[in-house]
Design a protein that fits this description.
Elements: E1 6-8, H1 10-17, H2 21-33, E2 37-40, E3 46-49, E4 55-58, E5 61-65, H3 70-93, H4 96-114, H5 118-135, H6 139-155, E6 156-161, H7 167-187, H8 190-200
Antiparallel strand pairs: 1-3, 2-3, 4-5, 5-6
Helix pairs in contact: 3-6, 3-8, 4-5, 4-7, 5-6, 7-8
């Protein structure tokens, strides 16, 4: 159906599908979260088809974005280029208090994995990176990096699964990677920290429409891997 088309009332569609109220409401919740339908109240209201938001692929997840999605692809690209600089600064300047602060964000990521909440996980991920940036004595670098994170966060509507690997398994792996990165910073292990940053960072990709094919083996063809 073209965007804006009226699909019918909730009750009419539920009966058409032949499912229970609970099943229908759960399906509707997922469709709304993915930007596929909107619900309008009042006379003439009901369910309407919506134009799905563009997405950026980050490993085995999608960030569903608002209309200014191009900003996110560029912000991710620049963020990745700056990560090694900030890790270098953290290796030299992180205090025990800084490391303890980073571990609190890693713990928040762990809690999000346990709760199977990918949105909370990604938000905790961004807070961890902002905390690493705050360690740098280079105020301009830290401020610019934090602004990039704000751009990514403000444009992201939700996080959706992609590919064959379950999203829960994927964020669990990403939690371990970030945990190991903080451990490497604590040990002042530059070689291991840089290896983990290389594993962490995304390959350059582009914003793609929800229906566009995404090839994880060909960066620059509508995908970003492995992030976030």
């Amino acid at each position: 159906m073209p965007p804006g088309s009226r699909l019918g009332t909730k009750e009419k569609l539920r009966k058409l599908c032949g499912v229970s109220v609970g099943t229908f409401n759960e399906a509707l919740r997922l469709l709304q979260a993915r930007g596929l339908v909107t619900v309008k109240p009042g006379p003439g209201g009901g369910l309407f088809s919506a134009e799905q938001s563009p997405m950026v692929r980050l490993g085995n997840s999608f960030l569903a974005l608002d209309a200014r999605a191009g900003d996110v692809a560029e912000a991710v690209r620049i963020r990745d280029a700056l990560d090694p600089l900030l890790i270098e600064d953290a290796l030299w300047h992180a205090s025990p208090a800084d490391i303890a602060h980073l571990r609190r964000h890693v713990t928040a990521m762990e809690h999000a994995v346990t709760a199977a909440d990918p949105v909370a996980f990604v938000q905790a991920n961004w807070r961890l990176h902002a905390a690493i940036a705050s360690i740098s004595p280079n105020a301009l670098l830290g401020s610019f990096y934090t602004h990039l994170l704000d751009v990514i966060e403000s444009r992201t509507r939700t996080v959706l699964p992609a590919g064959d690997q379950p999203l829960g398994d994927y964020i669990a792996h990403r939690h371990v990677l970030h945990r190991d990165l903080v451990d490497a910073l604590d040990r002042r292990d530059r070689e291991e920290a840089m290896r983990l940053v290389q594993e962490h960072n995304t390959a350059l990709g582009t914003v793609a429409s929800p229906t566009a094919p995404l090839d994880p083996e060909r960066p620059g063809r509508g995908c970003l891997t492995p992030g976030p």
